[in-house]
Amino acid sequence: MRLPPARTPDPASAPSLRWGLLGAGWIASEMAYALRGTSQQVVAVGSRDLRRAQEFVADHAPGARAHGDYATLVADPQVDVVYIASPHSEHLEHALLAIAAGKHVLVEKAMAPTAGEAAQIVAAARAAEVFCMEAMWTRFLPHIDVMRQVLDAGILGEVSTVLADHSIPLWPDGPERLASPDLAGGAMLDLGIYPLSFASLVLGGISSAAGLGSLTDRGVDRRLAFVVQGPTGAVGSLATDMSVSSPTTASVNGTRARLELDTMFYQPTTMRLVGADGGVLDEMVGDPIEQHRGLRHEAAEVALRVAAGESESPVMPLDESVRLLEVVEELLGPLRPARP
């Protein structure tokens, strides 16, 4: 048994789009860096603070226009697509703003704090007939494409279990957006969404879920261990915690073989095909230099779909983004105190 070659398109060959970055934080800078050397162009950056937008342009997007508010960013006639890089709590407002301006949108994961807000974004995009996608960049990476081919070909046999975790010590000394209930903080939307989305991809969707965890003193989820089940009966055992570091690995385990994904499984990483006897049958070596440069693959997907006149991606369907947030709500609901 061997791993098939990746079918991932070369980001440099994708049709060119002109991007506006809504937000001037860390993830926006990673996207700007990832798009360098591709066919995509960052032509505008928006922030509520003009000086911050100007500093971002100087540091990360030379030649782009700086906007001191989001309304002028989305109204910029040179912008084809808006990358929503603001905190989760602001995604609904900012996505609707861009959609109303007739722009295509790539909304940073998680698409929204709740399934209801995500559904509003989806409905607005469909009504406006613009492209919309959640920026779950993992799904567009080469090793994940290889994994999809392995699953489709039945190389692993019957998939029975998925294991994945993602924990980084970002609390209590990390960014305020993770600590604050008002900013939709917590481990699940920022970190746990990765193993959840990974398991959903492998299992063909999630039909049920249950978990145990605890909250911080400010009422956001600190940690959660959870299990999910797909429509075939296969299960995933997953975990997230924003106060510790974990291996952040994953495996897909079948009756004939398994796939092992090394640390930071959701980034470009090494993946092995392992036989039932434990022997390594094949290996796809990841490039550690890539890291967040892998964001260019999701940008290429947006460009290819827009050029084809499509309004969403079958790799990260809009209904899937809503469903994942429904599962998040199922998992976190029992942890939160009952309202009087």
Automatic annotation (TrEMBL):
InterPro entries: Gfo/Idh/MocA-like_OxRdtase_N (IPR000683), Gfo/Idh/MocA_domain (IPR050984), GFO_IDH_MocA-like_dom (IPR055170), NAD(P)-bd_dom_sf (IPR036291). Residues 147-260 form the GFO/IDH/MocA-like oxidoreductase domain. The keyword NAD applies. Keywords: NAD, Oxidoreductase. It comes from the Bacteria. The keyword NAD applies. Pfam families: GFO_IDH_MocA, GFO_IDH_MocA_C3. One of its GO terms (molecular function) is oxidoreductase activity. Residues 17-133 form the Gfo/Idh/MocA-like oxidoreductase N-terminal domain. Gene3D superfamilies: Dihydrodipicolinate Reductase, domain 2 (3.30.360.10), NAD(P)-binding Rossmann-like Domain (3.40.50.720). Belongs to the Gfo/Idh/MocA family. This is Gfo/Idh/MocA family oxidoreductase. It comes from Janibacter limosus.
